[in-house]
Amino acid sequence: MASTRAVLIWGALAVAVIVPVAIAANSPLLAWRSPVYIAAGLAGVVAMTLVLFQPLLVGGYLPGLPRPRGRRLHRWVGAALVTAVALHVAGLWLTSPPDVIDALLFVSPTPFSAWGVIAMWAVFAAASLAALRRRLRLRPRVWRLGHTSLVMMVVLGSVVHALLIEGTMGTVSKVVLCASILAVTVKVLLDLRTWALLTRSRR
Predict the structure, then answer these.
(1) Is-contact 104 119, C-beta < 8 A?
(2) Rounded to whole angstroms, how far apart are CA atoms 61 and 149?
(3) Domain residues for 172?
(4) Cβ(77)–Cβ(53) under 8 Å?
(5) Half-sphere exposure of 111 (CA within 13 A, CB side)
(6) Rounded distance between C-alpha atoms, residue 30 and residue 40, angstroms
(7) Global confidence as pTM
């Protein structure tokens, strides 16, 4: 029974991750696009899949990866997420600098751009806070509150950014991936009683 459950969980995760990437890689919208643009777009899709992994690792939900081991892997996946986001933005910059500048200045006519920028800065801030945790000597409660708040911004910004884009990701696979990210993130917040931490901080 346990092995069957593990196979189902890993299988569902593989489908949720591989299908959107495969659909994006084979999208007709990439015809005649430059290799840099294609790589930038795929980096963005990969970043979304990595966002799904993060709460799963923290919560210890993946078979064969108990919570302590999952949290160690969480750091490496976080580094990969930062890299994917950086490649996504850098590639878009190389193909169309004015569009990236407009997005960074929040003057882009496309609504999804602002949400992408918010998610990007939240990713960088969350990673920086994790890397500087010991140097900043933050109390565990303060660090957890700050990191969790940034993660919530990453999830919300990434999901809205992806849903608003009519691009290479398939509509159904994109919705499934975004819904999975939201569901798993909320479950982790509830299981780890993060909501209670956030509520106490406002009192």
Answers:
(1) no
(2) 21
(3) 2-201
(4) yes
(5) 7
(6) 11
(7) 0.90
DSSP 31-42: TT--HHHHHHHH
Mean pLDDT is lowest, of 22-26, 65-69, 98-102, for: 65-69
> Of 1, 4, 2, 43, whose CA–CA distance to 24 is shortest?
43
Q: Please, what is the Cα angle at 71 between 65 and 73, to 5 degrees?
A: 70
Number of domains in the chain: 1
Q: Which residues contact 195 (CB under 8 A, 6 or more apart)?
A: 189
pLDDT tens-place string over residues 108-138: 998 899 999 999 999 999 999 988 888 878 7
Residues 75, 138: Cα–Cα separation, whole Å = 18
Q: What is the pLDDT of residues 8-32, one digit of tens each?
A: 889 888 988 899 999 998 888 888 8
Output the six-digit token pair for 3.
């092995």
pLDDT value at 98 more than 90 = yes
Amino acid at 160: V
Residue 2 scores a pLDDT above 80: no
∠ CA 88-132-127, rounded to 5°: 25
